[in-house]
Amino acid sequence: MEQSRWPDLPQDVLHDISSRLRDAVDFLRFSAVCRPWRDSSKPIHSFPPWLLPTPEEDSIPLRFRCLFSKSSYRALLPIAESGRRIWLSTHDATTIRYLTVEHQRPSLHDPLTGAVTRLPLLPHKCCVDGRWEENLHGAVYADGTTLLYGVSTVFEDTKTIASFTAVLLQPGDAEWTLVETIFENTNRSREYCATYRNGRILVTVESSVWQISTQRGVDNMGIPLQRLPTMCGNYLEQYSYLLESRGELLWATIHVRTYYNDSRRFSMWVCALDGDKRQWVRKDGYSLADRVLFLGSPNSFAIDASVLVGHGGSVYFVYTNSKAAPYKQYGVFRYNLVNDEVKFIERLPQGWDCEKCTWLIPETIMAPVQEINRSSLEARGVKRQEIMCPTHVIHVERYYEPCFKVLVYNLPLPVKSSQLRLLFGKHGKVFSTEVICDKKTKRSRCIGHVTISTSHAHLEDALDALSGLVLEGCNLHINMVKEGRPQQQRKKLPSFIGAAAQLHIGPFSWLWL
Q1: Ranges for the RRM domain (predicted)?
Q2: CA 369 to CA 378: how far, in whole Å?
Q3: DSSP 327
Q4: Cα gap 189→380, rounded to integer Å
Q5: What is d(CA 403, CA 92) in angstroms, rounded to the nearest whole number?
Q6: Residue-wise pLDDT tens digits, 269-314
Q7: What is the tens place of the pLDDT at every residue in 89-114?
Q8: What is the mean pLDDT of the chain?
């Protein structure tokens, strides 16, 4: 079809195409082709979440992975203060925050805009030995309340004593409210998680959640959970997550059992807090079939199942325990709460292993169309337009990972480089192909070089996808030569006159030029 006829596609066809675009970047690319395509696209209220690591270092670009489109992105962030990053959970899945502490003074950072909020000095008792800061977690809530907490455990004889220390800063407060308590007789070291709700701090402890009052003179109270079959027996690891969904406070717990052959078995249950009866009630898998849960550190949330058709009742989580899992199992898993089955989705991208990961929902806002031509510029002059909101524009680029060079053996004798490019182009982006020939006879040696990057996040997955290729009846053998990356090029979107495609995440936007 001629290029000039693309804008003339029937409206029903354009509507059908745009309704199938579930990835934020694909939606923007579609809308940036031409005005008829832009006008035909229906606004999508929510996109599938992106996964991103939460590194403690301050010199690493922010990296994103969309599992559902098999694509990766990265962006250089505004210059921030140096220091260890302590990532916090947020009430809004479209925002992320982290904390730095210097000389007892914490600062709250928005890594996407560079905005910094100075917070009051932490209580001296929290920073005596510095260990509390090393084990610090926290959250920022919709009303502006900030919760920071840490748990330290001490082993005495046959029991474990856990000391819980938290500080709470509510809007208008000039200083932090210090909250301390001790949990005794915990069976083993666990991952504790906490949240602030209705004036109380909720902390997961073994098979119960404790309500801790922030007011002096008010006793703390444990909210019991009826013992479940999946809680019985030995398991090596337990991970707990607290999240709110449709007004309910949910407690999701993952158990990991280990077997003699180093295999792993996952089990999961989700409970809801019954405020009237003051107890946790396990939710049936079918009651969550209209939602999809995303569990991460620090952000966990649920989205409507209509955003991911066919994934209702599923839970996505990252498993990265390097001390207790084979290398292959570092990655993203999907647990089906309806049939209690778990599926390995993909390995984490290289460089993400053993890192904590969180989830983020991208938002899209299309900039208004403005027609710009030479005559209008000459008449008005070149006038810089003031961008009112958002005020921060960060360049994002498609990040191909991994990129590598392979040797291809057992090629058919008459094969050409163009045939290699066509074959490997079905599995990724091909940068170069070459059939190696004898210098004297100029005949093929049935060996070729291919430099390629694929949609797979990890090198091992990419190589596995290339195994078993057949060309003209010959089974090809693939050996990796080296891992490398071609010169970085910013990926440009097709655009029409005066149009700009922007991807908004929270109070900032990414602009493709």
Answers
A1: 404-483
A2: 19
A3: G
A4: 69
A5: 34
A6: 898 887 666 778 889 899 999 999 999 988 999 998 888 888 999 9
A7: 988 888 888 888 888 888 998 887 77
A8: 75
Provide the residue type at 262 as one letter: D
DSSP structure string for 253-300: EEEEEE-TTS-EEEEEEEEEEETTTTEEEEPPGGGGTTEEEEE-SS--
Contacts of 203 (CB under 8 A, 6+ apart): 149, 164, 183, 192, 193, 194, 209, 210, 212
Q: Which residue has the tokens 């904390």?
A: 99
* Contacts made by residues 265-271, CB under 8 angstroms, sequence distance 24+: 266/319, 266/333, 266/335, 266/342, 267/230, 267/235, 267/340, 268/230, 268/315, 268/335, 268/337, 268/340, 269/228, 269/230, 269/231, 270/315, 270/337, 271/225
Q: What is the pLDDT of residues 185-237, one digit of tens each?
A: 665 556 678 888 878 888 877 666 777 776 654 555 555 554 444 444 556 67
Cross-strand pairs, 317: 295, 333
Q: What angle do CA 24, 30, 32 make, to 5 degrees?
A: 100
CA geometry: angle 149, 153, 158, nearest 5 deg: 150
Query: Which of 490, 435, 444, 392 lies closest to 73, judged by CA?
Result: 490
**Is 36 in a helix, a strand, or coil?**
helix
* Pairing, β 208-213 against β 221-224: antiparallel
Q: pTM above 0.90? A: no
